[in-house]
Amino acid sequence: MSSDVDWGNMFYYWGANYHSTTDPARNSTFGEEGYVDSTFRKMKTNFTVAGIPIVLGEFAAVRRSNLTGAALALHVAWRSHYYSYLTQQAKANGILPFVGM
Fold first, then answer.
1. Which end of the chain lies in a sparser environment, N or C, as judged by fewer CB atoms within 10 Å?
2. Average pLDDT in the 86-92 region?
């Protein structure tokens, strides 16, 4: 998302250990590690174990340029975690990941 909309806010923080205590409205409320694990397991069960290859097309986490100080540090840390986590879980489930930057 490039701006907040009536159905939700942009997320600046993702991951169980990367939520902000000072900016909770920007914490992810869905799609975190448990969702990734569950979804990738389903993909493995339904496709990769049957010999059907899966490519995780470009995925990215936008760097928010409006943050400073501790908020920026947390934001940068969760982005690193996000890229590492998705890549590791994709590979663990036989999915070939491609990152878009």
1. C
2. 96
